[in-house]
């Protein structure tokens, strides 16, 4: 059976989660999202998943709760690698007040999106020898960052790969955190002789954890945490992408493991040697070494069964070797996983932060430093492009974006801006748009661009291209804000009008009213939007972007008697604009 990849549902019994009523004047750590509290008795719920499975493993990715791997099953033994319950309890921890301690969870910004829906796209295997993947994308509210991740499984090996690309969308340094959290239950975490990390639970299952980053693993309270930037502590610089991956190779039924490798896991009892293979290995040579002798035999390792060798007739064994792989110590000295200390890289990053802070003062005043430091130079070019667009000088804006992309070709937003300018110039061939799609195919701005390139024509029904942006208001607001930053006021208005045809979004009303009042002097139409805002209670997402803060303060000054505007003004107290 080849690899299978399909969408499905999983039935979980969960309590409801309701937002905690706002206390104006006090901003929660999870702002702009509300804190949550459990509400009501647990009820059955059907949640969307993507299933990836090959003959050896089955992984269920839960799309409605942060893109976590909610259930991970070793099909070779029928055992769950991670603790799984159909009625998992909610923990009253974390910045949001509730947390679901289950599965393997992408954990940027302290798990701020771990209870949120994520966008997804399937990559079907091209043939029976190809891997399949589910790609995930989410904005991280309040952080000016987004992530693009993937769960990938090969068709013929018992392993799964998690890849993360955390993107700083801002032109400033961003201290957003990163990582992965594995709710693995009680067990032991140790460093193996080959430098990899291994975990073995008290339930007799475990995993080898191979990370591409100089990160640190830690175990606490039944979960494992991976901080991939522990040895490079410091912010992400302007439009910087942090990329890392973790390969998980699971094992089960090895009794007491001596070694968990990418090819085999080795365990033993007093009388037996146990080997579980990650893939089929026919006609392999297994060599066992005692203190003064070696024993070799030809074996066929089948991943679907445990290979067992009787040790009663052999002298005490010290090492094992399979084919030309490295020798494995059968009585290893366990080493605890230790957090990394200070590094030269960390100190260099902290030093650059001070340089960047000085340069950003110039950016904030509407100019850019003449000789910025290398990490900041692309940001200065993008700032110059925005200033040029404000003067309607598209040629200068394109030249600045060329310079920025020449130094940071992974900046999907710069590619989008360049493609947007090309459309305004009437160019049909826009390779820049293909580059943006390649880097982040689920970027919300690309969906907004698909709508805007259709022109101002509207049908009787809301445009389906905008529906996902309206159902995820923070994504819709991110697109509006980016258009405003680029000086695309007309197109920002078109997008806001279309968003409101789909859903009632209070902050869209605020931005639309500000745009009409500031840019067109259409005070009557602006007042209509404010009256619509006034007629409803405030709903998340709450304001945090500079464009939102600026609009709220200007409108609140003009309309001191509008209750909702004054509430929003209190909410953004102390935030920069």
Describe the global form.
elongated
Poorly predicted ranges (pLDDT <50, ≥5 residues)? Answer: 342-360
Main pleated sheet: 8 strands, antiparallel
Largest sheet: spatial strand order = 7-8-9-10-17-14-13-12
Q: What would you report as the Rg, rounded to the nearest angstrom?
A: 27 Å
Query: What would the average pLDDT be, to the nearest integer?
Result: 88
Percentage of residues in DSSP E strands: 25-35%
The secondary-structure class comes to alpha+beta
Q: How would you describe what is shown here?
A:
The protein is of the alpha+beta class. Helices cover 28% and strands 30% of the residues. It has helices at 344-364, 377-390, 394-407, 412-424, 431-439, 444-452, 467-471, 473-485, 489-502, 506-520, 523-534, 546-558, 563-571, and strands at residues 4-19, 36-53, 57-62, 68-74, 79-80, 103-106, 119-123, 132-140, 145-153, 160-168, 180-183, 187-191, 197-201, 205-211, 216-220, 223-227, 241-252, 256-260, 264-268, 272-277, 281-290, 294-301, 307-310, 317-322, 328-329. The strands form five sheets. Strands 7-8-9-10-17-14-13-12 form an eight-stranded antiparallel beta sheet, with no helix packed on it. The chain has a five-stranded antiparallel beta sheet with strand order 1-2-3-4-5, with no helix packed on it. It has a four-stranded antiparallel beta sheet with strand order 6-11-16-15, with no helix packed on it. A hairpin with a 5-residue loop joins strand 24 and strand 25. Helix 9 runs antiparallel to helix 10. The longest helix is centred in the middle third of the chain and has 21 residues, at 344-364. The protein is elongated and about 95 Å long.
